[in-house]
Amino acid sequence: MAADGTDVDITVTDVNNxxxxxxxxxTVAGTDFSFDQLVLSGKDSGGINRILGxxxxxxxxTLIESIANVSVAKGQEIVSFTEDGTKTYRAxxxxxxxTVKGVTYTGSLTYGIAVTDAE
Length: 119
Description:
Layout: E1 6-12, E2 22-31, E3 39-43, E4 49-57, E5 63-64, E6 77-81, E7 85-93, E8 109-117
Antiparallel strand pairs: 1-7, 2-6, 2-8, 3-4, 4-5, 4-7
């Protein structure tokens, strides 16, 4: 992930069987960190575990962010579709004064994909 964030494309195809008033919703289903926080982790050169939070910027500019020890990101919609297409969100690291440089931070985000009622 770049220091200023990284774009992530989500593409859906064959969305021709949706009924009126429905959409394909892509949400945060979970992460590999406790409380499904938006966090990457890695070890520094001394073997100490380090973490780096990140946020998700939806295509409309709104943010999905984590709060320590609370699962607030889980279930949040990232993008939705009513027709075939690609939408891009941005994963943005939260680099601060305590961020340790030189650490390889890794983590995973699991998507939830469902047909839901459109707003």
